[in-house]
Amino acid sequence: MTEQLYRLVFRGDLVPGITPEQARANLQENFRIQPMSIERLFAGKLVVLKTNLDRSSAERYLAIFERSGFCCRIEPLPAPDLRSAPAEPPAAPARAATTPHQDWLFLELPKLVAAGVLNAPTAERIRAHYGAQEPVRKAPLALIICATLGSLLVGMGIILLFAHNWHELSRPVRTALSFAPLLLGQALAGWAIARRPDSRAWQEGSAAFLLVAVGASIALVGQTYHISGDLPRFVLTWMLLGLPLVYLMRAASVTGLFWIGITAWAVINRFENAPANLYWLLVLLPAPFFAQLWRQGTRRLARAWLLWLLSLCLACALGFTMPRSSTALVTSVYALLFSLYYLADRLWMGSARSIWGRPQRLLGCGGIVVLGLAFSFRQLWGELALRVGLERFHLLLGLNPLTVLLLGNLALVGTLLWKRRSLCGLGFGLAGCVILVCQLAAPLLPPSAPAWLFSLYLLLLAIASLRAGFREGLLSKVNGGLGILSLLIVARFFDSRLPFTLKGAAFIGIGIGFLLTNLLIKRKEAVACR
């Protein structure tokens, strides 16, 4: 007699008091499921979450899903007819090349067998149903980094060797040596494309070396024949000539170097009083490659650091590409940019990703907190450094970074409301508009009023982060809220005349709060796992 098996089903009902956004976040936190897979659970149809479970395993999974906010049900599976069933079920025909989701499944099967969720024959039938896993040649991250850095160092070393005796060489020799790095880089890139098309290390390393060789050849030829030019034109020409490598060799390293190069071009142009508005068109040139990389769902580390580079480059270039007439509102412009980062993360980034793979959230929240702390000092408002006045409102009526960022913020907030996303944590997303309104209305308010408003605003952000962290059981949000509260107390330490005893007691209280909240949440996670 065979053991009765069960399945766990979900029909779309949630535990009372749990919003769909909270349920999605809890499920991603507990099971590391991709957002696209979670959306299928809310399609209004019966979904089988787990099957072929014994009674104890079914009850264990039921408890986990209920803690996540899902009302599930255990249903018995009909017993198989052993008299008519074949001794060995025929395997399904092998399917085509595996997808990233199938690769994840093949990695999870041994863990499920070891945990007793599946038996070995069932795991083998699942593996046969999806076809044999194709061996994927993945270069270790350290190998790719070493290949890229090594190529850059070799290229710069060759330039230094040429420069040592450069003036003692004849012009034909210097011309030949000027093209030598370029020819060597092209040969390496061609060999990598022809013989190592699947090697990320060779593709990234040879592309980075060729990019350095292009710049070296331009500089050496220009010096040899005394071709006049300036630094901004050299950097721009260098980056545009290296751009095809992004698409030819699918090189993330060249994409990052391109963004760094054009950001440096914008900074140099500002110091030379030259316009740099072309930057916003140049930064979009590698966008199709980055979008394709994102849609494919592969090379997660490359996507993460490219996202970090792009976010930092945009923040750096924004201040250098603003028109000089808008410099009085530069703080509002950066506040709108940080709010836009946060809103974009809320809208497009799934909470299953690591927090370090979400630069928009980190930079957005961090930037808003830093600006809010700066605005909470009364001296800045008292000296009229942040008081702009409504007469600057005409800056919102033209095509400039301030107007574009404000419209982007409003569009993303409207999209979040239209999609009925949770409004929890939206205080960071509205911070840019709040700062802009305060700067424009500051002349109408008492001198110390804006500073107290921003202190209160930061306090509300800290309380909201603490509340969300406790409700969702996320240490990152709890520590973030405590961090904002600590920074606010430190700011008031220098800005107020309270006794040192009260300030010391406040620091001690915050420190104890850090320790106790982390301990409580860790115990809560341990109880949930049991």
Q: What is the helical fraction, as a range of percent? A: 55-70%
Radius of gyration: 29 Å
Number of helices: 22
Count of beta strands: 3
Distance between the first and last residues' Cα = 31 Å
Overall outline: flat
| Low-pLDDT runs | 82-98, 132-139
Task: Provide the fold topology.
Layout lengths: L5 E9 L5 H12 L3 H5 L7 E7 L1 H13 L2 E7 L23 H15 L5 H11 L10 H24 L6 H25 L4 H25 L6 H12 L1 H5 L3 H20 L7 H4 L4 H10 L3 H22 L8 H19 L10 H17 L2 H5 L18 H18 L8 H15 L7 H24 L2 H21 L4 H30 L1
Would you give an account of this structure?
This protein is mainly alpha-helical and 530 residues long. The chain has a domain at 6-130. It is 66% helix and 4% strand. The protein has helices at residues 20-31, 35-39, 55-67, 100-114, 120-130, 141-164, 171-195, 200-224, 231-242, 244-248, 252-271, 279-282, 287-296, 300-321, 330-348, 359-375, 378-382, 401-418, 427-441, 449-472, 475-495, 500-529; strands at residues 6-14, 47-53, 70-76. It has a 3-stranded antiparallel β-sheet with strand order 2-1-3, with helices on one face. Helix 14 (300-321) runs antiparallel to helix 15 and helix 15 (330-348) packs antiparallel against helix 16. The longest helix is centred in the last third of the chain and has 30 residues, at 500-529. Mean pLDDT is 77; it is low at 82-98 and 132-139.
What's the short story on this structure?
This protein has helices at residues 20-31, 35-39, 55-67, 100-114, 120-130, 141-164, 171-195, 200-224, 231-242, 244-248, 252-271, 279-282, 287-296, 300-321, 330-348, 359-375, 378-382, 401-418, 427-441, 449-472, 475-495, 500-529, and strands spanning 6-14, 47-53, 70-76.
